């Protein structure tokens, strides 16, 4: 074997897939051959690696300068063989990172159970050989509108950060229409820098400032009362750097999602407390949601699955964790407690509570199942929407309607409660019946637990985004309710991602 091929075989040997690729291609050059096509590949790769920071990736990870130096120093066939493999490894590393992220979700937080789909590396190599190198590099990152807008927002914020951000923070805990003074001026100036208020010299909290505050509140998931209270001022005072964290984390999260979300899909954003139906990129239905409370065993997980059916008039089969942690202590104090729930034994027979000494049981040996039959009081309400998953998470109705009026809505045991479950059902059934409302209520009024299959199964994506960028208007930001974004940012930073790697 010539010296070039020997070097390729030797230096690709620690990468089974890459070694197979070179072997199947006769150990020929991918990058270091003579001619325009090889020059274009090298140029496209180096340009992509040097621009890695514009995708929120760690530039040092790809060592473009080292590769350039190696190219200049390569004189012999063996040198060129070593270089060819080095360029291929850098390309595949960059392709994997920019396509699917540099972190593994489950390594960061146990609630991020999302499975990331990695593209076959041989396909990436084949694309490079068979396509225009510059276009191949351009198509590696996610092509979603959201990713493109997030990237643009990242660059904008980096430019703002380089020029002092949004200026002075606003002191105090509450400002409202009619107030005047230094704090109002600082609020005015900050709103101007943020783009919510036009040029103004007012010293008074006037109608224009009130309107600007309302717009800010809407974009940040706050009650739009036009009053800069404690929570609003807290969000107004968040520095550019922290918003930049959110955007760069959102870009990494976008890389984790499947590129094909489904022409019709359900999107639940845990930080936004909403559930939406998306049809061809447009929101066709939206409702408020309640998500898992911020406790170890109650936080809602993040994953994608497929909704297959709904159950009308559902029975609530109480999860064992709830049964032993919450209801067993009640039964030990009073066997007739929680009388709306039924206890059944291993054979499914109803248990007579009066004949049971509940004090003999603990979390490890409690032998009964607890169920709540269909009713208006059922914890699942009158309908639940099923996408079978190991986390046993689903969307459902709830009798606890008052929670939907709150600004922060993290109160459930992990499942997603919907404010408008009936309307959600109608929207799903509209694809398979001319009278979705009538179909649903005909089943509902029987009072019997009934399964309605969806003719068209629908992908469900439960995500966690503290930064989103709509097609029109300013970026929307939400609080990091479970602290997951903070963990991701720390991991990105440890991997070498720099906050100010690109400046406008």
Automatic annotation (TrEMBL):
Pathway: Cell wall biogenesis; peptidoglycan biosynthesis
GO biological process, one term: regulation of cell shape
Domain L,D-TPase catalytic as annotated: residue spans: 264-444
Gene3D superfamilies in UniProt: L,D-transpeptidase catalytic domain-like, PGBD-like superfamily/PGBD
InterPro entries named in the record: LD-transpeptidase_YkuD-like, LD_TPept_cat_dom, LD_TPept_scaffold_dom, Peptidoglycan-bd-like, PGBD-like_sf, PGBDSf, Transpep_catalytic_dom
An example Gene Ontology molecular-function term: transferase activity
Catalytic residue positions: 396, 415
Cell wall biogenesis/degradation as UniProt keyword: yes
Protein name: L,D-transpeptidase family protein
Keywords: Cell shape, Cell wall biogenesis/degradation, Peptidoglycan synthesis, Transferase
Highest taxon listed in the record's lineage: Bacteria
Family of this protein: Belongs to the YkuD family.
């Amino acid at each position: 074997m010539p010296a070039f091929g020997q070097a390729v075989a030797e230096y690709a040997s620690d990468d089974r897939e890459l070694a197979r690729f070179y072997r199947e291609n006769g150990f020929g050059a991918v990058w270091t051959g003579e001619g325009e096509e090889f020059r274009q590949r090298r140029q496209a790769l180096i340009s992509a690696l040097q621009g890695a920071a514009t995708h929120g990736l760690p530039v040092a990870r790809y060592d473009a300068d080292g590769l350039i130096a190696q190219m200049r120093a390569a004189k012999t066939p063996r040198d060129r063989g070593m270089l060819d493999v080095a360029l291929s490894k850098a390309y595949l590393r960059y392709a994997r990172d920019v396509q699917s992220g540099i972190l593994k979700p489950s390594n960061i937080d146990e609630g991020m159970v999302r499975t990331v789909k990695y593209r076959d590396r041989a396909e990436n190599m084949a694309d490079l050989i068979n396509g225009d190198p510059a276009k191949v590099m351009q198509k590696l990152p996610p092509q979603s509108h959201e990713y493109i807008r997030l990237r643009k927002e990242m660059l904008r914020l980096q430019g703002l950060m380089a020029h002092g951000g949004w200026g002075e923070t606003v002191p105090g805990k509450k400002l409202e229409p009619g107030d005047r003074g230094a704090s109002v001026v600082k609020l005015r100036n900050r709103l101007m820098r943020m783009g919510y208020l036009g040029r103004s010299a007012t010293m008074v909290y006037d109608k224009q400032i009130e309107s600007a505050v309302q717009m800010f509140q809407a974009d940040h998931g706050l009650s739009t009362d036009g009053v800069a209270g404690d929570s609003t001022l807290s969000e107004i005072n968040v520095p550019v750097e922290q918003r930049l964290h959110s955007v760069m984390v959102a870009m990494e999260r976008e890389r984790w999602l499947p590129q094909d979300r489904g022409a019709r899909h359900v999107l639940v954003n845990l930080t936004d407390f909403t559930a939406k139906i998306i049809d061809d990129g447009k929101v066709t239905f939206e409702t408020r949601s309640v998500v898992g409370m911020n406790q170890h065993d109650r936080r809602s997980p993040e994953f994608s699955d497929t909704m297959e059916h709904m159950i009308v008039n559902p029975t609530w089969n109480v999860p064992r964790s709830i049964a032993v942690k919450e209801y067993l202590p009640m039964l030990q104090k009073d066997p007739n407690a929680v009388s709306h729930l039924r206890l059944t034994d291993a054979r499914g027979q109803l248990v007579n509570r009066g004949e049971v000494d509940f004090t003999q049981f603990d979390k490890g040996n409690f032998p009964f199942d607890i169920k709540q039959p269909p009713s208006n009081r059922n914890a699942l309400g009158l309908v639940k929407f099923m996408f079978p998953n190991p986390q046993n998470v689903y969307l459902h109705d709830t009798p606890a309607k008052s929670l939907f009026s709150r600004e922060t809505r993290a109160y459930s045991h992990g499942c997603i409660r919907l404010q408008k479950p009936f309307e959600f059902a109608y929207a799903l059934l509209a694809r398979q019946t001319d009278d979705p409302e009538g179909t649903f209520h005909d089943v509902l009024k029987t009072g019997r637990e009934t399964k309605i299959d969806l003719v068209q199964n629908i992908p469900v994506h439960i995500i966690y985004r503290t930064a989103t960028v709509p097609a029109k208007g300013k970026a929307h930001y939400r609080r990091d309710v479970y602290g997951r974004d903070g963990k991701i940012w720390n991991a990105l930073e440890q991997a070498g991602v720099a906050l100010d790697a690109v400046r406008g």
